[in-house]
Predict the 3D structure of the following.
Amino acid sequence: MSVLTPLIRQQLESASVATITTTLYKRGLRNQLVQGVQPVGGGGRRRMIGPAFTLRYMPAREDLNGLEVFRDREHPQRKAVETCPAGHVLVMDSRKDARAASAGGILLTRLQQRGVAGVVTDGGFRDAAEIAGLDMPAYHQRPAPPTNLTLHQAIDLNVPVGCGDAPVFPGDIVFGDEDGVVIIPAHLVAECAHEAAEMTVFEDFVLERVQAGQGIFGLYPPTDDATLPAFEQWRKACGR
Amino acid sequence: MSVLTPLIRQQLESASVATITTTLYKRGLRNQLVQGVQPVGGGGRRRMIGPAFTLRYMPAREDLNGLEVFRDREHPQRKAVETCPAGHVLVMDSRKDARAASAGGILLTRLQQRGVAGVVTDGGFRDAAEIAGLDMPAYHQRPAPPTNLTLHQAIDLNVPVGCGDAPVFPGDIVFGDEDGVVIIPAHLVAECAHEAAEMTVFEDFVLERVQAGQGIFGLYPPTDDATLPAFEQWRKACGR
Amino acid sequence: MSVLTPLIRQQLESASVATITTTLYKRGLRNQLVQGVQPVGGGGRRRMIGPAFTLRYMPAREDLNGLEVFRDREHPQRKAVETCPAGHVLVMDSRKDARAASAGGILLTRLQQRGVAGVVTDGGFRDAAEIAGLDMPAYHQRPAPPTNLTLHQAIDLNVPVGCGDAPVFPGDIVFGDEDGVVIIPAHLVAECAHEAAEMTVFEDFVLERVQAGQGIFGLYPPTDDATLPAFEQWRKACGR
Amino acid sequence: MSVLTPLIRQQLESASVATITTTLYKRGLRNQLVQGVQPVGGGGRRRMIGPAFTLRYMPAREDLNGLEVFRDREHPQRKAVETCPAGHVLVMDSRKDARAASAGGILLTRLQQRGVAGVVTDGGFRDAAEIAGLDMPAYHQRPAPPTNLTLHQAIDLNVPVGCGDAPVFPGDIVFGDEDGVVIIPAHLVAECAHEAAEMTVFEDFVLERVQAGQGIFGLYPPTDDATLPAFEQWRKACGR
Amino acid sequence: MSVLTPLIRQQLESASVATITTTLYKRGLRNQLVQGVQPVGGGGRRRMIGPAFTLRYMPAREDLNGLEVFRDREHPQRKAVETCPAGHVLVMDSRKDARAASAGGILLTRLQQRGVAGVVTDGGFRDAAEIAGLDMPAYHQRPAPPTNLTLHQAIDLNVPVGCGDAPVFPGDIVFGDEDGVVIIPAHLVAECAHEAAEMTVFEDFVLERVQAGQGIFGLYPPTDDATLPAFEQWRKACGR
Amino acid sequence: MSVLTPLIRQQLESASVATITTTLYKRGLRNQLVQGVQPVGGGGRRRMIGPAFTLRYMPAREDLNGLEVFRDREHPQRKAVETCPAGHVLVMDSRKDARAASAGGILLTRLQQRGVAGVVTDGGFRDAAEIAGLDMPAYHQRPAPPTNLTLHQAIDLNVPVGCGDAPVFPGDIVFGDEDGVVIIPAHLVAECAHEAAEMTVFEDFVLERVQAGQGIFGLYPPTDDATLPAFEQWRKACGR
C-alpha cells in the first residue's frame, strides 16, 4: 500500500474521477472507468481510495452452490471479507450480472469494521438500504436481493479481473466519487494524482471566472496570453 | 386473501426481500425476483405485501388503441383499477418495456383510495413524482411518460403472467422493500415467512456481533459450537 | 424563439411531459419522447422549456481527438457552449452512448451563465454532482466521467438529430419535467400546449374527486352526463 | 380460415413481407413485423401463409415444470401441437427469450404431419438442423437446445399475444418469407394482399427497367408522365 | 481424458446437445448451455467432443497489449495453442465480447494440427471463412476481425471460467453440435451420455411413428400402455 | 478517388479485413471496424473496396414520412442512390436500428447498375434474398422488411457519420470481406494496404508451415533467427 502516500491520497481527494480519467486518457488509457456502477443508495459520501484486492466470480453450477458452502472458511467470498487488507478496496468481478447479489449488509459491515476502504462490484448488492447507511463507500449497478449462490460462484482471490469492462490488477488504485469508479494502474498513480490535483486547481479558477461571467474561449483551455498569468496570481492569492 | 394471516404479515414485515429469496432458493426456486424494478421515486416507504392481482399487456395495435378505448368500462386497465381487491397488489406484465407508461398518477391514486396494497410493473409509470408522493408503494423500471396506448394494449385480467422474468400466479404473495420485489408462491408463504423471520432474528444478532468487532468465521454461518448458544441467550435477553 | 409566447410557456409550465405526449399521440406522433434520460442528480427542479439548439456527435477517431482540439474555437462542442442562444435548450445527440461524457460542469455552468434554458444528452455528463447543483435543468442517461474525446467527436451544430430515439429539429420545443423530456414540433406547440393545459385542469379536477373517493368510471374519461357539468362548476369555483 | 381465399393466398405468394409491411404502413400500422426472427437453418423454402393459432409462454416456476408435466394431455404446448388446425400457423409468444427452446424436432414434425402451415416463435427451437430439413416453414431467433421447461411454461392457447414485439390475435394472417414474418390483421388481409400483389407487378416492371439501365427518378415512384403508360403496356405485354 | 471412454464418446455421437441438456435438467443443472454461440460458418461438420482446457481473457489495458507481447512464449493465448492437450476442447472466456477476436485462422490451424478436438469462444474469431474450412469444429458468437489485443488480454490458463454464462471447469466434457455447445460436468458424463443415447433411440422410434402419422399423446411421453412394448419390439427389430 | 491506386486496390484484395485492423491498431486506431454487420445472405462474394459516400438517417417523425416523400427528387435516400459516384461505397448511418429497412432490392440494383462498389448499413435491408443475388457486395445487420419511413428519415448526404460505432468520413476507404467491414482513413490507406499485403505474404508462409506441422513459437511472430531467412527463401521460391 506504499504507493498511496499521504500526498497522493490528498491529491486524489482534491481531484475527481473525471479529472483522473483525463490524465489516463493523456497516457493512452481509455478503458479504466468501471462502466455502469453508482454509489449504493445514491451519492453524498466521502471519496473511496485504496489499492485493489479482487474477488472473481464465475457462473454458479447448481450442485456446487448449496447454502452449506458458506460453512467452509476457504470459500473465496467469505475469505475475501476476512482477508482483504485494511485500507484496500475490494473489487468484485461479477461479470456485469446484477440478477443476483455479489454480497450483502452483514459482509459489508464486517469489511467496514476491518478498516477496508470500500467495495465495488459490477453486479449488485442485497440489503442496499443497509449498505447505503454504512460509512464505508460501496458501488454497484443496482440492488440485487437474491443470494449470490443463485448465479455467482466465488472462485479466485486477488487475481487480475475485469470490473465493468475495466482491467483491474491487484494493487491498482481504485478511486471513486459521485460520478463513479476509476482504476488507476499502480505505477501511474503518483503522476496522475499530481496532474489531476493541478488540473483541479486550474479548473476551480476557471469555474470562478465562468461564474463571474467570463466565456470559455481563451480561458478553457488557456489559449489567451493573459489567462495563465491571471491564474498564477489567483493561485497565489488563495494560497493553493 | 386468507393465506396472509396477521402472523405471516408480521413475519414478512420483520424480514426482507433478500431473506425471502434465500428461503425460496432453499426450495429450488431461483427466479422469483421481479428483475429490474425499483421503488418509484427511490426508497423510504413501508413494505408492500399482498396477494397478486394481475393485468396482462400485449403490444398495441394502432387501430385498436385510440384514446376512446378508455370510454369502455370493460377496458382491462381501467377495470383492473376498479376491481383489484383491497389489500391485493396489482402486478402488471408490461413485457419489460418502459418506452410507454403502464399507468399514471390518477389511476394509482384511485388504487390507493380503494385500499390496494401496492402496484408493480416491469415497465414504467408516468407522473412518477406524483406517484412517489402516494402512501401506497409502487415499483417500476423507470419513469415512462407516454400514454400506455402508445405501445401497450391491456388484454387480460388476473391470469398467470410474467413480471420482470418472474412467474406470477394470481394469489401469489407479492413482497417489496427497498431492494425490490419478490413473488412468493401462495402455498409456500407460511413456511417462507416463518423461516425468513427466524433468519432475520439471527442476522440481527450476527450484525450486532459484527458491529462489535467479531469476524464472520464461525459466526455466519454459525459453525462455532459457541455461536448458537450465544444466539439463544441474546434472543432471550432481547425478548425476540 | 417567437413560437414560445408567454402564454404557451405558462401553459406548458402548468402541464406535464406526460400530458404533452398524449396531445402528440392524438396527432399521430408516438416517438417524441427522449427515451432513457432523467434529470441529473434526480428530480426536484423547475421545468425545462426552450427551442432546441443541437450538437451532433459521431464516434471519435483517436488521431483527431487529442486534448489539443479544444484550443480551436471552432470545435463544435465549445462553439455550441458559446453560441447556443439564451432561452434555448442545447440538445446533444450522443448516439445513446454514456461510456464517455457529453460535457461537464464547467461547460454547463457557462451555459447557465449565458441564459441557456437547459441541456439534454442521450449520453451522460461528467461532474454530475456539480451539475445537479446548478439552477439550469440538465438531463442525461447516467454519470459519465471520461472526457468526451474518448468516444465522441463533436461534428455538427444545429442540424436535425436524434436524441434518445426521438427526432429533433432545430427550433422544436424541448420540454422536460421529473418524468423526462419530450420534443414538440415547433408548428404544434401552440395547440398542444393549450390542449395539455386544458387537460391538466380537468385532471386536477379528476384527481380531487378520486382523492375524495369517487371511482374512475364515468369520471375519467367523463362518460357520465354529470361529469362535465360538475367539472365546469368546479372550474368556475376555483377560477381556472 | 375463410378469410384466406385462394385469390388472397395467390396474391400473397406473389408478393413479399416487405411489400405487405408497406401496405400496413399506409394504414397506420407500423409494428406488425415479428422483430428478430429468421427462417430456421436459413432461407430457401416456400412462403408461410396461414391464420394464427397462438401459444403463450410465461416464465417457468421450477416446481411446476418437472419433465412429468408432459404426461398431461392438457399441457398447453402438447395440446397446441395436436389442436392447431391444419392450414394455420402456430405462433409462440416466448417473451423473446431464446435461452431455452420453444419446441423441438418431434413436435414440429407432428405439426407438419397434421398439415399445419408453419410455426414461428420469438424464442428458439432445439433440433434446429432437423427442423431446417422439414417442408413446413419455421421461424425463430436462434437455436435453443435446452428443454422449454428450463425457462418457459406454456400457459394459454389461442389468446392474443405478442411475438417479437408484434401484436398477434388468433385468426390474424401470418405471412413469412426470407426477410421474416409479418402479422396481417384479419380484416385487412384482402385489401393488403390485393394492393401488395399490384405493387409487386409494378416493382417487377421497375426492376426490369432498372436492370436495363433506367434511373429511379420519375420511375420509382412513377412521377414521370410516361411511366404509368409504359407500365400498363408492359403489363399487358407480359399478361399480368 | 479417461472419463471419455470410447463407449461414452459413441453415445454422445449418437445423441444431441438438446438431449444432453435434458439429462442435465433432470439433475438440477439448468445453465450448462454456452449461450449465444454457433458453429463458425454455419453447421454441417461433425460433433465436437472433448475435455475442457480453458483460457481466460480479461479486459485489455492498452499499455500491456502492444503487438510485441506475442514474442513472449509465456503469453497465455499462444501458450494455450501449444499446450492444450490433443483431444481436448479449448474453451475461451471472452466475457461475451465479440468486438475483437479471441483468435484467428493460423492459431486454429495449429490447434487442428496438434489434434485438438475443437475450440469455443463466447466472443468471435477473425478469419472466419478460413476457420469454417477447417476439419476441427469451432464455435463463436460472430466474426470478429480486430486483433484480440484491442480488447482482450489473455491472463490465465486452465482455471475455472464462464463461457456464454455457463460454468466451465477444466476437464468438464464439452459437447457441440449444430444447435450449440453444452458443458457436461466430468462426474456426470457417463450417466448423462448413457441416458441421452437411450433417449435418442426412443426419440428415433417416436419420430418414425410421427412421420407415419401417429399423434404424440400417449406416445411422447409414452403414457399409453402399448407404447413401450411397441418400442421394445421396434428396437429389437432394428438391432439398437 | 485517386487515393485508391491500382496497386493499393490489389494489395487490399490480397489482404483481409482482419489484417487491416491490425495495421490500424499499430497506428492507435482501435474503433474502425463497423461492428455488427455481415454480408447480406452470408459470405462468398468478392471483396468490397471503395471510398465512402455517406447517407445519414435520423429517427423518423411520422408527419414528415408519408410515402409521398419519395416523389421528391431531393429526398436524400433517393438522391444518394442516383449520386453516389461509381466505384464508391454507400455507407448508411442507420443508428444501428434494424427494426426498419435502410433500403431495398430496387435501390441496390440501381446502385449496382450505376457502378457503385458496395453498400453497408448498420441497420438492415429489405428484400435480402434479392440483394444476396446481386454481384455488388452489401453488408447489414439482419433483414429488415419494413419501409425505412417507419423509423428512419434520410437527412444528410456525404457528411461524417457513425456506422456500427466506427467513425466514417467521406472519402475514407471502406473495405469488406467475409469477416465484416473496416473503415480506413484516406491518408493511411497507402501505408496500411502495403503493410497488410506484406503481412499477408508472411502469414501465408506461416500457415503453410503450420499446416506442415511446425509450431507457432519462433515462427509467429518470427522470433527464431531462422524464421525470417526461411521466409525470404520461400517468398523468392513462390515469386511473391
In short: Chain C is about 30% helix and 20% strand. The longest helix of chain C spans residues 189-211. Chain C touches chain F at residues 27-32, 58-64, 95, 153, 155-156, 159-162, 165-167, 169, 185 (CB under 8 Å). Helices of chain C lie at 6-14, 17-26, 76-83, 105-113, 128-132, 189-211, 227-237.
